[in-house]
Amino acid sequence: xxxxxxxxxxxxxxxxxxxxxxxxxxxxxxxxxxxxxxxxxxxxxxxxxxxxxxxxxxxxxxxxxxxxxxxxxxxxxxxxxxxxxxxxxxxxxxxxxxxxxxxxxxxxxxxxxxxxxxxxxxxxxxxxxxxxxxxxxxxxxxxxxxxxxxxxxxxxxxxxxxxxxxxxxxxxxxxxxxxxxxxxxxxxxxxxxxxxxxxxxxxxxxxxxxxxxxxxxxxxxxxxxxxxxxxxxxxxxxxxxxxxxxxxxxxxxxxxxxxxxxxxxxxxxxxxxxxxxxxxxxxxxxxxxxxxxxxxxxxxxxxxxxxxxxxxxxxxxxxxxxxxxxxxxxxxxxxxxxxxxxxxxxxxxxxxxxxxxxxxxxxxxxxxxxxxxxxxxxxxxxxxxxxxxxxxxxxxxxxxxxxxxxxxxxxxxxxxxxxxxxxxxxxxxxxxxxxxxxxxxxxxxxxxxxxxxxxxxx
Length: 458
What we know:
Blueprint: E1 5-7, E2 23-26, E3 35-43, E4 48-51, E5 68-71, H1 77-94, H2 107-111, H3 128-137, E6 140-145, E7 154-156, E8 171-174, E9 183-190, E10 195-198, E11 211-215, H4 234-238, H5 255-264, E12 269-272, E13 282-284, E14 299-302, E15 311-313, E16 316-318, E17 323-325, E18 341-345, H6 348-358, H7 367-389
Antiparallel strand pairs: 1-4, 2-3, 2-5, 3-4, 6-11, 7-10, 8-9, 8-11, 9-10, 12-18, 13-17, 14-15, 14-18, 16-17
């Protein structure tokens, strides 16, 4: 044998590693020679036993014929010292003040025992287990055992007696079974079938006998007494994912429905494109209205796709193909894509068309076309006025008090202007200022061919 191993042919054939971690005692019963070492490996082919250290710490070979024994377990001094230290630490923790000495004389009275399995209040500090269970139980609203009929998406428990939707919005945690320790939000509770519906599904089906708990996620509210049944949960006040239908503005069952109702009040309808080859000027839809012109004049706005956010006035609606078309000057910047979502909004264009019809416009008349006609008419009339009457020059019309008036009484013809001399004035007249004034009501140009034209007889 070497200093850290020995061979015994009698051990050949024993199970592989049979003696690993056991204790080899050399020279048992001989106080001067005895030593013990841990066995680290064993070769069942050669019968060699390898030791953790050399005999007496010397590498010299162990003589053949030395007696030995293999012991299955041992405490070495270092391990004894470690265990002693641990026991002393535990004892120190049990050295409680005298007032508790009678109540906590044993470890079980401090830590707890199998009897500490009931649900305790969080302020129960009788022992550590009860205290911890109390803390955990304060986060658990309910617990139960699944019945037959449970599955990956539901827990059926006939012991549940609450009303519909009572657990909606809470979280369920499986404690046993294939879905153990998986948490899922509760999307619905059906009182009639005692089903707790979850989403998403558990990774494995819940089976009869599986234990679950419902965790309080602070989703419960403190409702007013009059609402304690209808509004017992936050989800019943704010709303849930299933509040997706169109509601009227007066529906205030939840905040979500109320807000959606207000928005819906400004939306005529919502739908999608249903056309294999839609165009920028028209496309078929998934609308259900079968009456032609039903949405004429309303504003269509896309919610997604290449035209998201754009709005254009529907020029014509065909109830047969559920087709919407738009004026050539008011088409989409991009070709819509089949499946794009849109809303139809009441628009001022529709109101304008209604007012136009009330004013007596013929059926099928176009406001835009009529405005073009009016503009052309005004252009024509203004041009005619400029052409035919543009020669008029209106002069100032002002007078001073007349000092002498001379009437032209002669027949019409080419006349010389009358003259007034000082001799013609009264003898008592004093000349302060002499102003000769002629009043022309209208001066016509020479192209005027009417009566009394300037280049004709006056």
